[in-house]
Specification:
The structure is a homodimer of 427-residue chains. Chain A is of the alpha+beta class and 427 residues long. Helices cover 31% and strands 18% of the residues of chain A. The radius of gyration of chain A is 24 Å and the shape is elongated.
C-alpha cells in the first residue's frame, strides 16, 4: 500500500486517442432475414422500439431516441422510419432507406405502410412477387410493443414471432468483436482505477466506527459509493457509459453504500459498460487491501481455478451449460457452493456464463437450474463473445468474483483483455 | 481565460456527501390504479418489462435487470414478480407483495397467475367481489411486450390499454421533486466542469489544422470528445449516470467528435443524467471561449430572452404548447427561426418543452407541428417538472441553446437549480 493519493491522475487522460472508437458502427449483413422471411412464407419482418432495443440497434446502427421508431425488412430491402426530428441523424447512421413520411403516425402504422410499399409489384426486388404479394404474415421479435402489433394487425397482417435477430446477434463479426474489445479496454481501465484508489488508501480510524481498519482516501473515509464513483468517472473518461451496471460489493450483505470500506474485506468490482456503438464489455475483479487470510483468500483461489477450468471448456460446438457446470464443479471441489443467485447488497444476480454484445447479457446464456440437456441457444459457435464469472457469496462475509471475456474462435477461444488480476490491489 | 489546467480538481470530490441520495426511492401512491380499474370495469392492471420501463420503475421502485418482470395491481394490492435470482433485491426495494413462484415462466404467465389469485374470492380485498370475479378485462400500458399480451390473452383476459400510469407520472410528489433536484445538482456540476475546462484551455496552433484558434487543454488539443468525457466523468463522480444523453455540439454541422474546439465557436453542452432512483435532470448551456461577437452573441441573447419569456408562461392551468410558442415567438422577434428539428451533428433533436422524470422526456410534451388546440397531455399542473430549452441552430455556424428545469407550483413555478449561465466560460 502506498501513501500517495493519486486522486488527480488518470491513465485515460494521458492518451485519449487510445480509447477513441471509429465513428461508424460495425456493418451488419441483414440478408439472413430474407432467408427467415422466405422459410416462413412471410411478407417481411418488422421491429419497433428505441435505442435500448438491441435488435433494432443491430439492424440499423441508429442511435436514436428511446422509442418510436421502426425497422422493416421486405423484398430484400431495409427501411428505417425514424421519429420526427431524427431523419438527418438516421441518414448519417443507417445504410438503408430512411423514410420520413407521416412522422406523427405511430411507428406500427408507418411500418405497415413501408411493408405494403416494399411488397407492392413496383417495390418488389429480388424475390418471387407472387409469394410476397400473397403473404400477409409478418415476422416480429416476441417483445414488439403490443400497440405496434395491433397496428400491424389492423393493416391486415398476421403476426408470427421470430428470435432470428437475437440468434444472429449471438455470433459477432470481426468489426463487432473490435467494438467489444475497445469497450473491454475501457472496462479494464475503470476497474484498474478502483484498484489504484484502494492501493493508495490508508488504513486508519474512521469516525463513528468502532475499529481502526477503515480506509481513508483523498482526505476522507473511502465509502463503497466513493469507490463506485471513481470507477465510473474513469469509464466516462475512456468514452464509455457505465450503463448503470457498475456494482461494488463489499463485506456482509446489507452494507450501505455510504459505509466505509475496511482493509480486510473482499471488494468485488463488476462493470459492464456500454460503448458509443452500443456494445458492452464485462469485467469482474475482487481485491482485499490487507487480508487476514482465511475465507477471502480461499474463495479467491477457488474462483481463479474455476475460471481456468471453465475457460478450458470453451470451444466451438461446446455448450454454455457445460462451461457453467465446469465452473460450479471446480468451486465445489474447493468446498464452495457457487455464488448465491441474489448476489450481494449492491450486486446484480450473478449469471456465471452469458453472451455479451448489444445487450449486457444475451445469447448464449446458461442459467443454473436449467434442464440438463443441451439448449438450442447455448451452443458456442465461432464469433460468440462470452463472459465467464465464477463467484462465491457468503452473506456474512461478502462476495468474491472473477471474470474473463473471451471470443470463441475456430481453434478454441481468445481472451478479450489482458487477463491481469491480483488478490491485492495494485498501483 | 486562465493558464492553469485544473485537470486534477473536481468540485464533487471535495464533498461527496453533497450529492448522496437517500437510499430508498420516493414513495408512490398506487391507489389511483384502483380508480382506473374500477372505472373501466376491469379485473386489474398489468405491466411487464425491465428497469428501463419508466412505468414499471414508478410502480415498483425496483431497479432490476433489463427485462422479464411483471407488476400486477388488483383488488387493491400490488404484486411484483421478479426474475429468477432477484427476489431478495425486489423485497428490499418494493413495498408490496413479491411473488417468486415459477421464476422460469414468462412474466406474462406469472402476471396472469397473480391476477387470477388476487381476484379469486380468497384473494379479494376492499373491492366488490362480484365485479372483479366477473371481469376478464385487464388494463395494460400500450407498449406492453406483445408476447406478454399474448400470454394474458391465452389465460382468458381481454386487454385494454391505458395511459393512466404515464399520466400519473407527470405530476410529481415532493419526494420525487427532491430526487430530480439532486440529479439536477449533479447536472450543474457536470456542465460547470465543461465550462472550467474551457476556461482553463489555452488558444494555440493545433497541429494539422490551418489556423491558430484551436484550444489546448492539459497538454493536448481539446477535442469535442475530450470535453464530453470530462463532463461525463464529473457526472459519474457526482453519483449519476450520463445515461448516454450528453451532447457537446460545436460549430458547423458534420464536425467530428475528434475535431478540435476553437476559441470563437459556440459550444453547446447538454446533459440529461439519471440518478440512482431513475429520475433524470436536464441542463443545456452554451459558451464561446473568445467570441468575435456576431451570430453567436445574438443567438445567445435571443435564447436568454426566449427562456425568460417562456418561463413567464409557466403556471398551473397553462399549456406546454403555449410555453413553446412563447419561446418561438421571442426567437422570431430576434430574427431567428427556432433550432432545426434535427439539431447538430452530436445533438439530440431539440424538443423545446417537455416533462422530465423517470423518462428523460415525458408528459407534458409540446412538439412543434402539433395541432393548434390544447392537447390533453400538455396541461401544466402543480408538481409537473418541465424542461424549457430554446435553441437556435445554423448548419454553417453551430447551435446555441439554453435551458432551465422548473417545477410548476400552486403559485407559478420554482427553478430547480441555480439558473446561472454566462456567455463566456467561468472558472
Amino acid at each position: 500500500m502506498s501513501d500517495d493519493s493519486d486522486a488527480g491522475e488518470h491513465e485515460a487522460a494521458a492518451d485519449p486517442s487510445a480509447t477513441h472508437s471509429p465513428s461508424t458502427p460495425p456493418a451488419v449483413d441483414r440478408s439472413f432475414l430474407d432467408d427467415v422471411i422466405d422459410d416462413r412464407d412471410a411478407a417481411g419482418f418488422v421491429a419497433v422500439g428505441g435505442r435500448d432495443d438491441a435488435d433494432l440497434r443491430y439492424l440499423t446502427g441508429f442511435d436514436g431516441p428511446s422509442d418510436h421508431y421502426a425497422y422493416v425488412r421486405a423484398a430484400g430491402a431495409s427501411v428505417l422510419c425514424p421519429p420526427a426530428g431524427y431523419a438527418a441523424r438516421a441518414r448519417r447512421q443507417f445504410d438503408g432507406d430512411v423514410r420520413n413520411e407521416r412522422p406523427a403516425d405511430h411507428p406500427g402504422e408507418r411500418a405497415a405502410a413501408a411493408l405494403e410499399s416494399l411488397c407492392s409489384p413496383d417495390g418488389t426486388r429480388d424475390v418471387d412477387p407472387d409469394r410476397s404479394a400473397r403473404s400477409r404474415v409478418v415476422l416480429v421479435p416476441p417483445t414488439i410493443p403490443h400497440d405496434a402489433a395491433v397496428y400491424l394487425e389492423r393493416a391486415g397482417y398476421e403476426l408470427r414471432s421470430t428470435t432470428a435477430v437475437a440468434e444472429a446477434r449471438a455470433t459477432k463479426t470481426s468489426d463487432e468483436i473490435d467494438a467489444v474489445r475497445a469497450v473491454q479496454r475501457a472496462a479494464e481501465r475503470g476497474v484498474r482505477r478502483g484498484g489504484r484508489v484502494l492501493a493508495a488508501a490508508e488504513v486508519g480510524p474512521v469516525s463513528d466506527e468502532g475499529d481502526d481498519s477503515g480506509l481513508l482516501w483523498d482526505g476522507a473515509p473511502l465509502t463503497v459509493e466513493r469507490l463506485r464513483r471513481e470507477v465510473n468517472a474513469e469509464l466516462a473518461r475512456c468514452g464509455v457509459s457505465d450503463a448503470r451496471n457498475t456494482s461494488v460489493a463489499v463485506g456482509a450483505e446489507g452494507r450501505r453504500s455510504d459505509a466505509t470500506v475496511h482493509r480486510d474485506e473482499a471488494i468485488a468490482i463488476e462493470v459492464a459498460p456500454r460503448g458509443p456503438h452500443g456494445y458492452h464489455g464485462h469485467l469482474a475483479r475482487t481485491v482485499v487491501v490487507d487480508s487476514d487470510g482465511g475465507w477471502e483468500r480461499r474463495a479467491y483461489v477457488a474462483c481463479e481455478a474455476a475460471l481456468d477450468a471453465a475457460l478450458g471448456e470453451v470451444e466451438p460446438g461446446a455448450d454454455a451449460d457445460d462451461v457453467r457446470r465446469e465452473a460450479t464443479a471446480e468451486l465445489a471441489a474447493f468446498g464452495f457452493d457457487p455464488g448465491g443467485g441474489d448476489g450481494g447488497p449492491n450486486a446484480e444476480a450473478v449469471e456465471t456464463v452469458h453472451g455479451v454484445g448489444l445487450a449486457r447479457r444475451e445469447r448464449p446464456r446458461s442459467r443454473s437450474g436449467a434442464t440438463s440437456g443441451p439448449r438450442s441457444d447455448a451452443t458456442l459457435e465461432p464469433g460468440v463473445v462470452l463472459a465467464v464469472t465464477p463467484s462465491v457469496t457468503d452473506p456474512e462475509r461478502g462476495s468474491v468474483r472473477l471474470s474473463e471475456l473471451v471470443v470463441v474462435t475456430d481453434e478454441g477461444d481468445e481472451l478479450l483483455g489482458d487477463g491481469a488480476h491480483s488478490f491485492t490491489p495494485r498501483e
